[in-house]
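Budget justification, computational time. The allocation requested in the original proposal was used primarily to generate structure tokens for proteins on the priority list. As evidence of use, we reproduce two of the resulting records. The first is shown immediately below.
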Amino acid sequence: MATQDFLVELGTEELPPKALKPLSDAFTQGIAKGLEDAGIEFGKVEAFAAPRRLAVRVRALGDAQPDKPVEKRGPAVKAAFDDSGNPTRALTGFATSLGVTPDQLDTLETDKGAWVVYRTIEKGRPTVDLLPELVDQSLAALPIPKRMRWGAHRTEFVRPVHWAIMLYGNKVIDAPIMGLTPGNKTRGHRFHCPKSLIVPTPGDYEIVLHQEGYVIADFAERREKIRKGVTAIAKTEAGGEAVIDEDLLDEVTALNEWPVPLMGRFEERFLDVPAEALISSMKEHQKYFHVVSGDGKMLPLFITVANLESKDPKQVISGNEKVIRPRLSDAAFFYDTDRRTRLEDRIDQLKPIVFQDKLGSLYHKSVRVAALAKKIADAIGSDPQLAERAAMLAKTDLVTEMVLEFTDLQGIMGQYYAANDGENEDVASALNEQYMPRFAGDDLPTTLTGCAVAIADRLDSLVGLFGINQPPSGTRDPFALRRASLGVLRIIIERELPLDLQACCEWAEETFTVLTEQNTASTVVDYMLERFRAHYEEQGINAEVYLAVHARRPTGPLDFDRRVKAVEAFRQLPEAQALAAANKRVSNILTKQGGEDIGETIDESLLQDAAEKTLAEQIRKQADKVLPLFEKGDYAAALTALANLRQPVDSFFDEVMVMAEDDATRNNRLAMLNSLRNLFLRVADISVLPTSA
């Protein structure tokens, strides 16, 4: 099959920078999937994305779909011919529907008899005929929340589309896309090359744009060029280090076709403002990278990335310096103004701010969280008074000028203002740490006071919203309760806090007077324990391991985690499958014979066979060994010890009949099995584990 490279480019007005990469990825994946579904052979698929263009190049694309055999079954041979051997109406109707004569049909022998069949080869469609439809389908499926129209066009897209390329080899596919007739012409940089450029073949695409058009079309190449340029200019011009936020780097890459890093300065007096406020102002509003010294201190410098090569870069730098000065002046003004009012004097300002209609204001939430944090702090060995104080101040920075302007600084500014007010160091830290972890993999609170407030704040939201029947549903989770649950679990586990979720949720429930749902605390605990499943799957731990532990419903996250790790280690042992199978067998036997009514006291005088005597002795010996380990929470060592029971358990089932005719003997054997199973149940229900590879 002959192959050619294929190129499709959509030229637009400037695309939303935060959406550029997702749009490019989706467009590329859509083209690739369309080709796969069509059965067309192709090589490497390459994506290109810049502010004014989305493009995809497919290497070594086959010129047609492969031919494929087609077989259609008709009537049974018995029904296809009459007694004289002439075609029946059933056969002639089948042949006519296919546009053939009966003598062009074959027969197919099957277990159920012979059938008339039509066999042919369906010729594959030319690729050039399929491509316009594939491109349209991929564009229609792009993740665009709101599409727009422009001019007199009825076409809709995220931004107006002004040109299009569709090239297969050196041939233009001129079927309309997005209301335009494609050609082989692209456009260069808006200022450096404001004209059309011919792209002879798909392989020339990025070369033409780079050499003639002042456009680096490859997103990844442009991103790396910006990273190296920003890093180099910080080092060579200031002896410092540029701090490159990956999300900001993506956004800047999406804003520039021909990036040129430039360094500017701001007045040193602004360094008296907290660095986070300066960074937020530069990053969010101006898309600047900040620079730090070798010891990590912020320097009065910024790096901007211009989308052109200026003949007078000093003018560009000067313009950026003029723009950032009022921004930083605002931040300095807000900082000075906010520090004149103590945080504790802002508490009453939280009363008009609604947290949730039925659950009251942020003031009401603060009072509840303070009471809960006090109890949690006491349970983890922290200072309850500090936790209570921190919780009451926790939301007060939301009404400061700085946070009203820069919302991403909530908590961060609270810590600065609390320190300025002379609050205890742990209290000040807790105002920032209450929001930790802000996202998956984020840092956790470092102080116990911060842990208490962070846990209390999240549990208040969980218990309150579940208690008024407002739990998350499907993809709808406006209060981010899933993230709140995972945050609580992470803090408790990674900080090794001796907290029980049931107790904590019951404490939270006591702070409310408006809850309408029954058993709210238990419902919330069940919801939170269910979050463990995805948590462990991300760590590569088998779902059955989680289910084995969950079956015992331990409500202490740290205890739950230790059990999971122990069962996961046990599962790797050679004895694990056999013992899991034995536990499953024991569980089935005990369930049929009375379940919980069966005791676990073994009468040694009733032991008859050598195998059951050995098992009884080994159960007693292992119990003496593992019970102290269970008390210490050393589940891994306990399960490793219990793995030694495999041989006596196997021998017991091979040589002993559990359901003996004598009632006393039978009940004694059931008690022994119950004693065996209960040893494992101290950790998890290992009968849930898979018993075959």
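The second record produced under the same allocation is shown here.
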Amino acid sequence: MAFADRLDLGLTLTIGGTAHAIPSSDVLAFELDLHGWGHEGRVEFRVLDETAHGGQKQDKLLADFLKPDLAEVALELKAVHSDTATKPTFTSLKVKGLVQEKALTEESVAQAKGAGITYRHYTVRFVDPARLLWTQHHPCVLYTQKTLQDVLDAHKGDKIALANDWAAQLDKTLPLIFLGLSPESGASFYDWAIWFTHTRNGVLAYDYTAQGYQFRAAKDASATPITLRAADVERVSVVFPEVARHDVAVLNAAAESPKNQAITNAQAVTGVRQDVLLRTDIADDVQARVTLETARLKIRGLEVELDWNRFPAVAFAPGALVKLPETAGWTAAGVPATQDFRVRRMNLRAEPLPVEEGELPAGGEGEEPVRRPKPESRFLITFTTRLEKKAEAHVDLPPFTAPVYPRFVEGLVVSEVGEKKDETWQAYTDDATSLDSYKVKLPLFANQIVQVPFNANLQPGHFYFPAYKGARVLVALDFLRAWLKRHLDWRAGARLPSDGQGVHLLVGKTTTSGTSMRHFYEDNKPLWRLQRTNESDTEKVELKEGNLLILVKEESA
């Protein structure tokens, strides 16, 4: 429902550090779609320029507007009421964002008397800073022994403010954090942040007072509710969101400790479920996932949608707590008058009213009159607000593309056993889990070391050939874990000439301290050789056509 109303409006466009204040009378239209996690908007205004026709008024915005520099929008709205019994204390709705798209139209009008004038019609579309900047940000970076708060701080830049309240997830030091966000996969840093929040049952809240973000463990419920005025609202609707009709089951596919843990939902339809598949030997990891999925299974409650007939004197933004009026006619079925609500979403659209006063005379016969904005900012406004119960557990988040894992990088196996030249292997045992792992150095990421499972990998279990020091390997990197994908190179001394069509098993610390078993062809006849070497000491067994050789020798120094 649209209504005519006056607004005390302030608009500032800052480009390249230069602020341009736009008079309220020059704002033609605007639109705001505000969520608890961020916003988007559009504003149209025009600027008078008479300099081309000898006038004094100049458009000082044009030169900066034509530049590709980053532009910021600050829009402030305040009600103008004069018919209330007691004059309220008016508060403002403030929205700040970064320009995503802009347009310019120029109109020159000749007047019957005096110099001609030029109106430039400007349009800017803007969004909250993270939505603009992080959606273009696709880092591929590895962190070890860092917190997720460290990661967010490293990527927020100087245009994004963070004030987080999620210590359980953000303040824990983790062995590995990997952001492999390829533009081709479609997932940006913004998608990653929303995906992480969604999968960990967190909250992303945009603070319209501080114009910044909060990653939170739960929604803020500490504010004092604002009581809405019945006279300001035209219509109240009760909306019932879709109810989850599925159960959940957490499955652990580890052969020695399989588990199928059901999580029931009283509203589920029999046979409908969502299975979560894990593969871990750590029981605590399974229980942690059960706890998480139990918390994520939420039954949404009713919501209330308000259609307004005027802009409220006490402005609010998404995240604010409000109380519905207790006057008769407001208490819809199932909505107690004492219930506190949270503003989940607001949509505000303002279009210009038909202009009658202040029209300039036409430039000549048959020409349209020139319409100049009136001093007061009157608009035809559509304003709706969606409320949720204060205790609502469902978290509203923007759409996102889940990041694609794993990504693959090369590494070198680490072993601290023996001398530097020795090609030894080493298993590192975790004190907390008793699980063994390799350490692998990743040259691309400043030689940071990650741990990968110490297991048979692609070999059958009766072969025990651990990866040796310095082995060039392919490492699969997930968000919080890594594993050895495969080996990429032959060990020094292991490769044989192709004309002999040989195969070779080389074990030991070095080529001068180890054992070699090879089979190859000599004069197109098979030859098998087993040789042990320890510096100058050599033992060899060799089988070839008509010969058996057993040799033990020690070279003189």
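A brief technical remark on that second record: Residues 357-375 have pLDDT under 50 and may be disordered.
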